[in-house]
Amino acid sequence: MTTGVIPGGQTPDPGPTGKRMPQQRQDLAGQGVLHADNRSRSSVITARAAATFEPVGRSVATARSFVRDTLQGWGFADIVDDAVVLTSELVTNAVVHAGTHADVLCLRADDGVRIEVADRYPEREVPLQGSAVNMGSPDREGGRGLQLCAALAARWGVEYTPTHKNVWFRLDLPERPVGTRTAGPSLPAALLPLADGRVRVAVVQIDRTGAITAWNEDAGDLFGYPADQVTGKPLTDLAAWPHTPGTSTGIAEALQLSRWEGSYGIRGADGRVTPVYASHLRVRDTGGEPSTVCLLVRDHERAVLQTPLRVPASDTAASADGQSADPFEVFIGSPAPDDLDGLLQRTVERARDMLDGDSAFLLLATDDETELEVRASTGLPSARQRFARVPVEAGPGRYGSARMPAVHDDLTAVPGAVPLLSGTGMRSVVTVPLKVEGRLTGSLGVAAEAPTRYSNEEALRLQFAADRIALAVESARLGELERLRRGSLSFLVEASDLLAGTLDRDQTLALMAQMTVPTLATWCAVYTIADQASEPYLSYVLHEDEDLIDGIKSLLSKMPPPDPVPTPGARVWTAPAEVAHQAALRTSMRSLGLTGGPAHHISSGIGPTLATASAVGGETVVLPLVARNRVIGMLTLGKPTDEHFRQEILELAEDLSRRAALALDNARLYSERTAISQSLQRSLLPPGLPQIDGVEVEVIYRAAGEGNEVGGDFYDVFPIRDGVYGFAIGDVCGTGPNAAAVTGLARHALRLLAREGLTGPAVLERLNSAILDEGARSRFLTLLYGEMCPQEDGSAELKVVCAGHPLPLRLRQDGTVEAAAEPQPLLGVIEDLELYEQTVTLDPGDVLLCVTDGVTERREGTRMLGDDGLADVLTTCTGLTAGAVAARIMRAVERFASDAPSDDMAILAMRVPGLHKD
Fold first, then answer.
1. Residues 6+ apart with CB under 8 A from 407
2. How many helices (H) and strands (E) does the chain have?
3. What is the pLDDT of residues 290-313, one digit of tens each?
4. Which of 133, 448, 473, 625 is the right S-S partner for 633, CB 3.0 to 4.6 Å?
5. What is the SS3 string spanning 276-323?
6. What is the per-residue pLDDT across 554-586, written as a single tens digit (0 to 9) for each?
7. Alpha-carbon distance 915 to 908, whole Å?
C-alpha cells in the first residue's frame, strides 16, 4: 500500500490532479499523535477478512456485526468490544461524515488483530495542530474516532493514498494463563459478590420440544420439585416470563437461540416465583438431536453466570480521559436486540446496574425536540409512565433542560425538576442527553431513593455510555418509524377504500369506530353536529370489550360533550378520566360505609361501574372532524387507566379523522339529496289508484337505476267526471332526472286537460304543444291515453289514442290475444298532429294490458321478449285477476334475462270481472 507522510503536522502538497502525492512514511509512535505501524515488527498475518459498506446509515450497524462475527470466529472474544466500538466510530466517519463507501479489513495475528477502515475521500484529512492531533472536546460529534483509538488501541495511525484515506488500529490480546478465556483481577473480599449461603446452580436440559429431560439436585433444592415430578413437562409450565418487563423475546424463542443470557422467574412447588438469572446454551447430541442446557442461579447471585464486565480503568490502565471503560461493555458487550423496545429496556436496566440505582428511564424526543416521550423504565410504574410526555425544557437554567447533563442531589428540594419521578419516592437522580450529530434524540436517567447518591463523576460515566448507545438507539428508532409509516400508509389506504365504499351515514360511523378500535385506541366515541346551531350529539360508541360499550355510552351521554374546536390535531379531554376517578372514589367510599367527600357531588345518574371507570380512566383525546371548512363532529379516542397515546398513533389518527370527516360529510350530503330526490320523485307518481266499480285496475312500476323511484316511464289512472275515468301510460325518451321532468309535465297536463272536457285527441295535441314549448329541454314522448266508462251490462267502453306507444293487448275469455288500438305519431316531434281515438269494448272477463317498451325490449344476449313474447305470456293469464296478470307478466320479464333491467318498466292491467263471481 502506498502511504503518505504527514511530518510535523503539515499536509502533503496536492499534485497536479489535486491528490496527495505519495511520500515516505514517518513513525510518530509514542507522541499521542498520528503514527504508522511498522509492519516489519508486526506478527505474521494468519487470516484476513474484508468487506465494503455503502454510504448509508445502516452500514454502521452492519459493519459492527461484521467485525464482531469475524473476531468471535477467530476466538478473539476478549478484544471484540473494543474492536466493535472503534470500527463503529471510524465507519460512521466514512459513511456519514465523509459520505463515501467504507472498506473494512481485519488482519489476524497470533498476538492480536489489526483493523483498517478506509474511505474514498483522501482530501478529507485529519485535522492537525502543531505536532499533535486536535482531538477537540469529547462532546463534539466529529473526531472522537481518533480519540478512542488513542484510548483503547495498542497502536494506531492514518495513511493516505491518492484514492483512499485509511485509519487503522491494532489491539493486542491480553496476557493471561494458558487456557483462560476471560479473567478478572484479584479483588479484596469486600468487593466480591455476596452469596447468602452455598451457591446452588440448577442444571436443566430441555429437548427440542421444550420438555425437561434432565433436572439436577440443585434444581430440586432451589425450586422444590424432585426430578421425576418435572421430567417430561414443558419448561414453560414453570417459567414466569418475563421477569424483566419490556423484553421482547419469549421463553420459547430464547430456548431456540444458540446462546442466551438474562433474567426471568421459576414458579416453585410452594407457588412462589423465584427470580433467577439464566444462561442457555444450544447443543446437539451425537445423534444430531438439538437440546438446550440451562444454568440457573438466584438472581442476586447472577455474578456466578453473568459474562464478566471489564476491569475498571482505575484497576488496570486508565483510558485517555481518565474515565472507566466499562460503559462499552455494559451497552455494546452483546448483540443488540432487533426491536427498539428491547434495546431501550436493556439499556435502562444496564444503566441502573452500572450506577447501582433503584430505577432508570429512557425518553425519546419528538421530531420537533420540544417534548420527551417515555419509552422504557425499570424500577418505576412503567404501565403508568409509558408514552407519557414531559417537556424538554422543564424549568429555567441548565438543570431544567434535557439538553444538558444534570445531577439532582435531592428532588424534594426542587419539586417538579424531573416530572417523570414525581410521586415515585426517588430522591437523587442523574440525567444525560442522547445526541446524534448534535441533535437531541433522547434522555437517559438513573435515580435512587437515597439523596446525594450521584456526583459529576457518575454523570460523566453515564454520558460516556449514552454517547455509545445513542447511534444504535437512533438507528432502531428510525427503523421503527419506517415500519410504522409503512404500516400507517397501508392502514390509511385500506381505510380510504372502506370509507369510499359506502354512502350510508350509519355505516360510515361504524367503520370509523371499527378502524380505530383496537388498532389506535381501546375505545372510541363519535360525536356529530347537524348544523352550526346544533350541539354535538353522541352518535356511536365502541370498546374492544363489548360488555363495556353500554356503560361507556351511558357515562358519555350524561356528560357535556367536548367543545367543537376546529383547530387541527389531537387535544386532551380530561373530563372522562375525572368523572371515572370520582366515580371510583365514590364506589370505594360506599364500600367502606362512608358518604360525602369529594366524590359525593357526582350525579347519582352517572354511576359507572368500576370496570367502566377503569376503561375510560386513561388518556382521552379529541380530534375534530372537519369537512369543507366546517366542524361536522368529533372523534374521541381513549385508553384505559394510566395509559398514554404515542405521538405516531395520534398523527395516524389525525390522518384518519380527515378522511373519515370527508366520508361522513359525503354520506350526509348523499342522504340529504337522496331524501330530496325521493320526495320530488314521489310527487311525480299518482297518490293512489281510484276504486272503479265494475273494473279491476293494477299497476306495477320499476324505475331503472339505483335510488330512482321515477324515471322516464309513467302511468296514471284518475277520475274525469262521474262514471268516466282517464288512464294513461307513457314513456319519455331517456331516463333520469331530465326524463322525470317531462314525466311530471305530461302527467299533470293530462289531468288538467282531460278535466276541461276535451276529447282524447285534443288532450294529446295540446300536450304535444306544451312539450315542444320546452325548447332544448323537450323530449319526445310515446303515450297511450284513454277514457273508460263502465256500462250497466257489466262491460266497459274505452276510447283510446295510441301515440307512438306499444299497442295495448286485449285478452278475451277464450284465451285469444289481439291488439286493441292502431299506432299513431308520437308526441314532441312535430307541431301539427292529426290524432284520432278508437273505441274498444271490454266484455266481462276481458283484460286490457298496457306496457312500456322496457317490457317488450327486455333482452338476453341477441334475444328480445318482443310483442309476440308478451302475447304468449298473456295467453296464459285467462281467468286471473288484474293483479295476478300484472304479477305474472313481471315475473316473466325478470326471468327472461339474468341482468338487472336497464330501462324503466310500467305495467297497467285493467280487467272487467265476469258475470259470475270470480
1. 428, 429, 430, 454, 455, 456, 458, 459
2. 20, 36
3. 899 999 998 888 878 876 543 333
4. 625
5. EEEEEEEEECCCCCEEEEEEEEEHHHHHHCCCCCCCCCCCCCCCCCCC
6. 888 888 888 888 888 888 888 887 877 776 666
7. 23
Percentage of the chain with pLDDT > 70? 79
Cis peptide before 518 (omega within 30 of 0): yes
DSSP string, 395-406: SSSGGGBTTS-E
DSSP codes joined into one string, 734-749: S-SHHHHHHHHHHHHH
**What b/e readout covers 762-781, taking b as 16+ CB neighbours within 10 angstroms?**
bbbbbbbebbeeeeeebbbb
Structure letter (DSSP) for residue 96: I
Give me the residue label for grid cell 357535556.
Answer: 560
In eight-state DSSP terms, residue 776 is G
Place of cell 380512566: 617
* Per-residue cell: 284: 446437539
- Cell numbers given for 670: 348523499
Cα–Cα nearest to 760, from 698, 665, 844, 837 = 837
Lookup: cell for 422: 414525581
Q: Give the number of other Cβ atoms within 10 Å of residue 343's Cβ.
A: 24
- Averaged over 332-358, what is the pLDDT? 73
The span from the CA of 556 to the CA of 537, in Å, is: 10
For the chain, the distance separating the N- and C-terminal CA atoms, rounded to the nearest angstrom, is: 116
Q: Report the alpha-carbon distance of residue 466 to residue 473 in Å, rounded.
A: 10
Fill in the DSSP letter of residue 9. G
User: CA nearest 807: which of 837, 865, 852?
Assistant: 852
Q: Is residue 730 scored above 80 in pLDDT?
A: yes
For the beta carbon of residue 890, count every other beta carbon within 10 angstroms. Answer: 17
Amino acid 409 reads: D
Helix 80-92 vs helix 58-73: crossing angle, to nearest 10: 150
DSSP 782-814: EEEEEEEEE-TTS-EEEEEEEESSPPPEEE-TT
Residues in the chain: 918
**Rounded to the nearest 5°, which phi and psi values hold at 329?**
-65, -40
pLDDT digits (tens, 9 = 90+) for 811-863: 999 999 999 999 999 998 888 888 999 999 999 999 999 999 889 988 888 88
| DSSP letter (8 states) at residue 238 | T
pLDDT digits (tens, 9 = 90+) for 177-221: 555 555 555 667 766 767 777 889 999 999 988 899 999 999 999
Name the DSSP class of 548: G
Q: Give the type of residue at 676.
A: I
Look at residue 759 and give its three-state secondary structure. coil
| Residue of 317 and 184 predicted with greater confidence | 184
Which amino acid is it at 514?
Q
Name residue 391's beta-bridge partners: 371
